Amino acid sequence: MELANIEKLETQNQSHPTPPQNNGTTFITTCFNGLNALTGIGLLSIPYALSQGGWLSLTTLFGTAIICFYTGLLLKKCMDTNPLIKTYPDIGQAAFGKKGRALISIFMYLELFLLAVEFLILEGDNLHKLFPDTNVRVLGKVVGGKQVFIMLTALVMLPTTWLRNLSLLGYISVGGILASVIFVAAVFWIGAFENVGFSEKGALWRYKGMPTAISFYTFCYCGHAVFPTLCTSMKDKTQFPKVLLVCFVLSSMSYGSMAVLGYLMYGENSMSQVTLNLPINHISSKIAIYTTLINPITKYAIIISPIATALEETFIKLNSSSMAISLLIRTILVVGTVIVAVVVPFFEYVMAFIGAFLSVSASILFPCVCYLKMNKASREFGVEFVFILMILIFGSFVAVTGTFISVRDIVQHVHI
């Protein structure tokens, strides 16, 4: 999940008394932003997700896309009830008061924090693949290359988090989409022309791996935190449902293609990131890996910024004399992501946890519950109510089983 223009979420704890303005983003621009929000690092792990559930789980991938598209429409319907609603936490407050705002904000911030952690783990994994012999001896102990690269990457990213004006970093949507296209093309080239082939048959169905697979699939479509902001930014907000349709169709084509390519290439040997499967001696592999490495570096600060701003608004009133405290808060946040990434350097398990616990809640459960609360007519027995009820049952099942499995896997592999 990459959240384009995520710094706009910094306004989520503020009221919005000003009337809507006529200026705003166009349909095409919003499509780019939304597509960038939906197409991110999940692209790397979609073959692994397919290997966990088998070929038939592709139906679940597209089913999850349909559900998340529908819940995105529910968020728009919630916004239509009050012109002052601008952000996702606003919806939570409109539905359940301050507790609703606080709950949704906590889930959003935790999701962003763990996404930043995933960026660091991804960098560590892929840099270690490029330079496998790297290690450092500290106080008589050998620190592995993966941990070294996590810390070095964070050190490089740290100065970017000190910038409060992230407008320059916000114009990356087109670049992010282009990077995804290059990545898929590079993987296809490796399979077709680098003696890898598409000969793996894979498993038809693996029911034990379905909770993990669905957790990954939900992670891929967890752009709901930014959907209200994207809608608010549009010149013509009535076109937002069409924006969602375009974004979900194109992202599903991208995810489906990558899942099939990767699984045909590596089958049951698919790793948590398809880049870790690629033969390192080919230029096309290096293009794919380096393309993967660039995006987290450019987006890490955008992901961290809303959390930092919320903490700053809680503890201080920013002015010229408080910049030192601001820098300290942002530095501590970066250090926190490094600690978690070093202690829990398991990309697939962390992603599964994000998908099952946070993404399912924010992208499936919360939109349905808020809509039912805010729209009395929706609680009347009918097709809409039954469909929403089925979504809630499905989401709750995935959240419980997926979270349990991911937490179990993390606990089993962590050695402190």
UniProtKB/TrEMBL annotation:
Region annotation (Disordered) ranges: 1-23
Q: Which UniProt keywords apply?
A: Amino-acid transport, Membrane, Transmembrane, Transmembrane helix, Transport
Which InterPro entries does the entry link to? Answer: AA_transpt_TM
Instruction: Tell me which GO cellular component terms the UniProt record holds.
Output: vacuolar membrane
Comp. bias intervals (Basic and acidic residues): 1-10
Q: Is Nucleus given among the entry's keywords?
A: no
Origin superkingdom: Eukaryota
Molecular-function GO terms, alphabetical: L-amino acid transmembrane transporter activity
Keyword Acetylation among record annotations = no
Q: Where is the Amino acid transporter transmembrane domain?
A: 24-404
Q: PANTHER family, from UniProt?
A: AMINO ACID TRANSPORTER (PTHR22950), AMINO ACID TRANSPORTER TRANSMEMBRANE DOMAIN-CONTAINING PROTEIN (PTHR22950:SF698)
Q: What is this protein called?
A: Amino acid transporter transmembrane domain-containing protein
Report the source organism. Answer: Perilla frutescens var. hirtella (Perilla citriodora)
